[in-house]
Amino acid sequence: MNALNEWYRQLSERDKKVIQIAAPIAALVVLVFGLILPINAAVSDLQKEVDANKKAVVILQAESPQGQAGQGKKSFSSLTNLVTNTSRQSNFKLDRFEEKNDGEISVWFDSISFDKMLSWLATLENEYGVTSSYISISQTSDAGIVRANVRLISEN
């Protein structure tokens, strides 16, 4: 610091005036471009991210079974209807089903494509909030075809 003071004292009056004017301007430029603008850009980016996340939440709530208005607990018959209708739409038949307590239904397949069954179960969970609490799968003599028992629960 002493060396800097000594250097400043050796300057001419004109150079001292230039430094007295330029130093605060340089400090202000460094402050603006080095601190304020990057912080402002970061805040702007975060605000855009928050806005995008808010839109995503609205979309997810609108698409989720829990977010849809007027959808309360499913009764046994509506769960049965949902299971039979979605299986029909997936082009396979239920060999047997049995309604259980507490909004559960057990479904048996004597012969079903394993991939089709998994796709159907994913559709039930993702679109209707119906999950499986128990699955029993056994092989058949045909490749890719299984015998299965699935217990489904309505989450909504």
Automatic annotation (TrEMBL):
Belongs to the GSP M family. It comes from the Bacteria. The chain crosses the membrane at residues 21-43. Inner membrane component of the type II secretion system required for the energy-dependent secretion of extracellular factors such as proteases and toxins from the periplasm. It is a single-pass membrane protein. Keywords: Cell inner membrane, Cell membrane, Membrane, Protein transport, Transmembrane, Transmembrane helix, Transport. Pfam families: T2SSM. This is Type II secretion system protein M. The keyword Iron does not apply. The lineage of its organism: Bacteria, Pseudomonadati, Pseudomonadota, Gammaproteobacteria, Oceanospirillales. It comes from Pleionea litopenaei.
